[in-house]
Each structure stands twice: as C-alpha cells, then as structure tokens.
Amino acid sequence: MLSALSLGISMAFAGAAHAAYPERPVTIVVPYPPGGTTDLLARTISMKLTKSLGQTFIIENKPGAGGQIGSQAVAKAKPDGYTLVMGNINSHGINAALYKALPYRPVQDFAPVIIVAETPNVMIANKDAPFKTFDEFMTYAKQNPGAISFGSTSIGGSPHMSGELLKAKGEIDMVHVPYQGAGPMLNDVLGGQIQVGFDNLPSSAGHIESGSLRALAVTTKERWPTFEKIPTIAESGVAGYEVSAWFGILAPAGTPDDVVQKLNQSIASALTEDDMIKRLDGMGARAVKNTPQQFADYIQSEVTKWTEVVKNNDLPMR
C-alpha cells in the first residue's frame, strides 16, 4: 500500500513538473551553420516560444556532416524537453538513404513535435552567367558537359539532391561543389566562383528580390505562391521532377508526451499569428502545423521515398 501511495505521489509530482514546463532556458540545436533556412526558422520560432512560454529558447548551431553532428547530440540528450533540434528533410529524411552508418535513427531516436514550415528549393545563378532562364541553362549544359559547377549547402542535403535529380532526369553533366551551409555557397555564386547553386528558397529570397542573384526555377511540382514568376523545373520540360523541403522541431525519444504536446500547441498557435504568416511569406515558406503523430508518420514516409530515389538514380551511399 505504501509503495502504491508513494508511486501515486511521485507520478503526481512528475505531472505537476511537466505542467510547469519550461522552468529554465531551453536549447534548440540547429545542426547547420547560421544564415541558412533551418537557422532562420529556428530563430523565428525561438522568439515566439520565449514570449509565449516565459523562458528563453536559445539557439545553438552545431553544424557538421550534413546535419548528423547536431542531430546525434539531441538524440543522446536527456529526454526532458530542454534540448530540442530543428530537423529538416536532410537530417531526418535524406541522410537515412545516403549514409550506411548514420549515428542516429531518424524515426526511433526522436519524439517529433511539429513541422514548422515547408518551402521549395530554388535553382539560382550568378547574374552574369551565360544563361538567363532555365531553358537557356539546359541548352548551355547540354552543349558544355561537365563545364558547369553547381553548389549546394551540404553533401546529401535536399539542395544537393535537387541538383543530382536534375542531372539524372535532365540528362546533363554538372560538377557538384558542396559547402558548409547556405551562406558560403551563396557568397560563391554571388562572386562567380560557381555558376549555379541550389538552395532553400528562404535563404536566397532576399538576393533574388534585390536582383543580385537570378532565380532559374523552383523544385516543387507547382509554382510557389509568393514567387509565382519563377517557373518550376517540371513545367520547363524535366518531367517528373519534384523536391520539397520541410523543417520541424523534434525532441529526444522518451520526452514526456505532455511536454511534446505543449510545444506542439505553442508552436501551432504562433504559426497562426499575422506577423508570423507575413514573415514566412516573405521568406518564401509556408506553415504546416501538424500533430506529433502525423510528423512521425511523415518522417517514415520521407525515409522510404529518398531511399528509393537514391537506389533508382544509382547515387552512391556514403
């Protein structure tokens, strides 16, 4: 009887502790360098959560190995809700297809909270490149096999895979140049060190709007609402081409469900606020707002999808 009573009291205290969450600062790990879309979205969400939940949500950039280092750190963190990760299509989808020995399991090692936003990738070019449209690019690429270098934000990331998919489906030859994040890659496209790059639209949007970079096409099946003038790769003649990037908050597996639900509801509420909608629109992104279970199911479907893409396009595993 005493044991049962003690257990009941212990559970009550645990429930009260979770209800009071957060009681101290929370760290959101961004497994990529500052300046990219994952980082921008994480910082935007952290400001909203700091305001709504009354504790500081701190961003910690922990880049490396295509998102593996930061993701692994969170997978091994104490599952108490005080260490989270802003994962994405790369860290929790493509990596499982590309790496033979991934140091974490994208599905089993995490408690998905919510997908924050989705965005197309965009194919960008130096404004002085010898092609001004996607059609002109394809003509140039076919006439000059191997002469074009395309940059991406990391090895195995969705921008990299966007380029590899174009090589396969468009039957062109390009040289891949990987970078540690969007910032360095954009600098080299701007400077003309490489002719083209693939990036998440939000981190390139400002350069596109200012005219410092030329947008050749987006990778989604349909044109993006806030950038409707940019054609899709599919509509430009590359049949069956489609890549969509997503970004979401995850906690370590075993994090109490009430903590996960509280974070889900707080973020979902923030995503409905006018200033947040406006900011996402300006970045070329849009809110998703799903449940933890829907997010978990989606991660599983992404792992399956990209495993098939890697296999069907004979891309080498690492």
TrEMBL record:
Alphabetical list of SUPFAM superfamilies matching this protein: Periplasmic binding protein-like II
Indicate whether Cell inner membrane appears among the record's keywords: no
Q: Which UniProt keywords apply?
A: Signal
- The keyword Transport belongs to this UniProt entry's keyword annotation: no
InterPro entries named among the record's database cross-references: BUG, Bug_dom1
What range does the record give for the signal peptide? 1-19
What family is this protein classified in?
Belongs to the UPF0065 (bug) family.
- PANTHER family, alphabetized: BLR1237 PROTEIN, TRICARBOXYLATE-BINDING PROTEIN
Q: What is this protein called?
A: ABC transporter substrate-binding protein
Q: Which organism is it from?
A: Pollutimonas subterranea
